[in-house]
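Fold this sequence, please.
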Amino acid sequence: MSMRIGVVISSTRSTRIGDKVAAWVAQQAPEGVEAQLVDLREVDLPFMDEPAKPAMGDYVHETTKAWGEMVSGFDAMIFVVAEYNGGYTAQLKNAVDTLFAEWNDLPIGVVGYGYGGAARAVAALEPVLATVKAVRVPGPGLLIGQHLSPEGEFLQAAPADEMRALFEAVRAQAPALV
């Protein structure tokens, strides 16, 4: 049985490299895993626009319903996390906060990238994922200068083996497939 994993591009900047990083992450998917890019720029969610709390599950806006259906269509996700000023992007926070039940028990791998591997952003994301009851699966921090260039080109030292291990760890956490 093939597993579907959404690889989320968290940066929406016009000058981002997150799309290149996420494409490389998706290319590391092992056999039996369909990795599909999910670009938050294209998802284009309004900021906290639902009248009811997400935990109520009473979504009225088509954008929220479509986002919920997209997330529910995956067996797991991998967030490709940029670090801006020590945190992760507002768009990623909004994407998580817009839903609730869809995250419950969903395995989410986390891959940071930046000069410090996005360590602070990844750490800030942990309690948020715990609150929405996602199953967080830690992944590698990709370092600019060691693993990739500032332009998002991957270098020889890029940890492809660690990425494949992350996919396997995420697969092992998917309840329907265990």
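The longest helix spans residues 160-173. The mean pLDDT is 94.
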